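Entry 14: structure prediction run for tRNA-specific 2-thiouridylase MnmA. Input pasted below.
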Amino acid sequence: MSGGVDSAVAAARAVEAGHEVVGVHLALSRMPGTLRTGARGCCTIEDSMDAQRAANIIGIPYYVWDFSERFKLDVVDDFIAEYTAGRTPNPCMRCNERIKFAALLEKALDLGFDAVATGHYANIQTDADGNRELHRAADWAKDQSYVLGVLTSEQLAHSMFPLGATPSKAEVRAEAAARGFSVATKPDSHDICFIPDGDTRGWLAERVGAEQGVIRDRTGDVVGSHEGANAFTIGQRKGLNLGVPSADGRPRFVLEVKPASNEVVVGPREALDIAEVAGSKLSWAGLGPVDSGIIADAADPFDCFVQIRAHSEPVAAVARLVPRTGASEGQVELVIRPNVPLNGVAPGQTAVLYVGTRVLGQCTIDRTVSAVPVPA
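Run finished. Output tokens:
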């Protein structure tokens, strides 16, 4: 129970469905002041109190479990390491993968519970053979299946999403108000919970340092300078210290971050169009494409939709598994070619594949191929 309206209503519905429910709030920092306060966060002292009030109204036991050390290692430290490597991580995805449906689920199963229920907007369906599948929520505007794309078949077997079939968030808020929950009108959480003031650049500079370097265009010419490459993200336009204007006078955007040489590469907006993405860290949300009957052989390409951000539109694509270059035998990477170019994709982001409403699986993007060749 995060302290928000969704998890409170999910807990109440689980009780009414006949389950024996225990409310658990995750303490993710031993210094709560380092996490966002008020309505902006999802794991503050205020949120814990909101969750307890909801649990009291529902009439269920309520506990706070300390996962602060695991959260620091698996989410915060990972976030720093990814940025240091010039990648753009998704901490909410890592939190779901390593905390809520790994550390939390492991502890729950060890204590004799059957499942973890959350307030995520997503559905679990069962195929004709009894295999569980992850699907989009009924309300696509609130659908959160993207951030759950990291779940495995084993984790889906012990997961419940009581809000998945709800037509709208407005209905959930109305239900919360009818139940007497004080969080009925509480705003949704957003932004990165462990960066108190939202200043990602400053937060990173304090932890990994910042060293002045150069900004180059796609041909390698120096066009400016920066105070630390770690602070830049793919697609960024603002905050570029460019001393040399572009030949056509058009604005330039960050195309690549090179931490090894402390360089940032910029170019025109159209160079952000990506014709291909690939990643070797991949997983299937249930049965993979061969076992699902989507393809007959692991090397066969298959049609799907790819989504690269939690709130972006899915794009029709063709995906295939190919041997990973330079890797041991049997290691593969997932290569995805969208039918129309994706925009502003960065290594470190997560590409989630859909077949219809079903989440097939995901990969962390290792590399991208621009749709616009580098000028000769």
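Notes: The chain is about 25% helix and 25% strand. Will compare against the previous run tomorrow.
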